[in-house]
Amino acid sequence: MSNNENAFYARATELIKLANQQNQNTEIQTGEVSASFMWALARYNAWFGSTSFENKEQMQAKKQEMMDYYMERYKEMLDANLEDYIENFDHYRATQK
Known about the structure:
By secondary structure, the chain is mainly α. Helix content is 82%, strand content 0%. The chain has four helices and no strands. It is globular and about 50 Å long. The protein starts with a helix and ends with a helix. InterPro entries: DUF3144. This is DUF3144 domain-containing protein.
């Protein structure tokens, strides 16, 4: 695994640790943590996407392209992770709440 891949997974692991930490609060349902995570990612990606433009008209012109890009990447990542969980279901579920 390259240094870039290591850094990629290390960043992702830190975010997952935060979600898991929040999930330990018995007053918060797991779905609430997931919803907050999705909203935060959408907000971050909207900000990140905005950094490529000089004005809102340019951003508006590329909005659908950005939506398509992010949705396709998320779909690919979700599919890969669902397949991984299906393949390793008993092992993963045995170590989770």
